[in-house]
Amino acid sequence: MLNIGASLTMEPANSKHEKFRCKVADIEENRIYIDYPIDIRTNRTVFLLNSQSLDIIFIDEKQNAYKFRTQVVGRIKKEIPLVILELPEEDKIEKIQRRQFVRVETAVDTALHFRESNMHIPTVTTDLSAGGCAVILPLDSIPNDQEEGEGIFVFPMSSGEYHYLQLEFKVIRTWEEAGSRKVSLQFRQLQEKEQQLLIRFCFIRQLHLRKKGLVIN
Q1: Are residues 111 and 184 in the same domain?
Q2: Neighbours of 125 (CB within 10 A)
Q3: Could you read off the pLDDT of 16-50 as tens digits, one per residue?
Q4: Out of 5, 17, 75, 131, which residue is the most buried by the measure of CB atoms under 10 Å away?
């Protein structure tokens, strides 16, 4: 389920204002060895305290998402300095749906191609998570149920840079709202770097909205 080289997203159990990323360097019995985590917002190395509780999310090779709680056991130096975490029993590792990722209101420019209905539509998202998004379509543009496609998404980062991702998607559902059609899309076959950029973008956007008191639960 959890393999060496897997990317982990973690947040302190007592704080929803911080989120870190790291990789699994080794696994031995009930221990996970990770490289020193990086703060998603600042890109700085994070120092974890012994016995600190953390909530971990990871994606397996089949693109399933899992979550578990762990705590810091200690540190060790192998080829590089590593942090040691507890690895819980398998029944303590919870499978979660992609929609349980942080979801935020945000207008991200995108150009979508729906393969089966052969529609090419420039539009914007209304909300976004690391698992998918909702977009606005013209009322006369109706994709098929479960239709697949790809889109180019433009992510403006807080650094001033723009990241362009070409992402595969599947249609989950469609509905009408406020005189327009909305479509919920699930991202598919995400690469590790794409997943991490989405998590980082959504987290920073969530912090911005929280300061204004505007956060989707």
Answers
A1: yes
A2: 20
A3: 778 899 999 999 989 999 999 999 888 899 999 99
A4: 131
